[in-house]
Amino acid sequence: AGNQVLAGRLLSIDRTAPTIVASATGAPNAAGWYRTNVGVAFACNDALSGIRVCPFAQTLSQEGDAVSSTAQTTVDYADNLSAPSNVVTVKIDKTAPTLNVTMPPATVLLNATHDFQLNATDALSGIASQSCGALNTATVGARTVTCVATDRAGNQTSRSATYKVVYGYAALSAPLSNPTQVYVVAAPRSVPFEWRLFDANGAAVTNATLTQTTVTDVACPDTGVSLPTPPAGETNSFVHLGAGAYRRNWWINYTTTGCVRLEVTLNDG
What we know:
It contains no helices and 21 strands. The chain has strands at residues 19-24, 38-45, 51-53, 58-60, 64-68, 75-76, 89-92, 98-100, 107-109, 119-121, 127-132, 141-151, 156-166, 168-171, 183-184, 189-198, 210-218, 225-226, 237-242, 245-252, 259-266. The mean pLDDT is 92.
């Protein structure tokens, strides 16, 4: 009779391979270095059948100036295989530099200078900067100074030191000029303590002040020598005699025998 049936089938054809591009997930610093682990993400694309699977991100954790990712491939739903991805190469330095520096001693004379002899090293990215704070010795008192070294990746190492700025001291007369000698006096009377104060350059200190005096009873030794004649004026006093020389008159108003220790603290601590 000539009747016909027409049958058809719709086919999807994809003969184009997908693409895959690798890239670091963060940017390096201005010097081109990272100081943490670096993630490498993969962007997969297929315009027709679509991506079947895209590789997981990689983590670059090794330190070095040429740390590289591993090339990866992807496949689309038509089973087309991509070319290998590009390789991401980065510079990673997670180790802080080594800071070699001569810090100031615990006690520094007024107006003293100090050579920090700063020498920082870094085995990987190299040193970007190294410096120390200024040593402040213009006035007496407790201070803190900090030195910092930074490598090109941004890692830092710091060292701090606490120091005390004090007066230079020299005894001028007994009993201070011979501290191992035991002196005997007949109380009541004044005992003169005389000393000179100076800075790191030998210049006289003329503005020292007395902040504290402490008297403590102590055991007496068996023998002693008589103290020289007391100064004029039987009284407690603290005076600057000129040229950095100071006298502390100590009035001992004891009515019984005994031995005492006198501790004088100046404004430099």
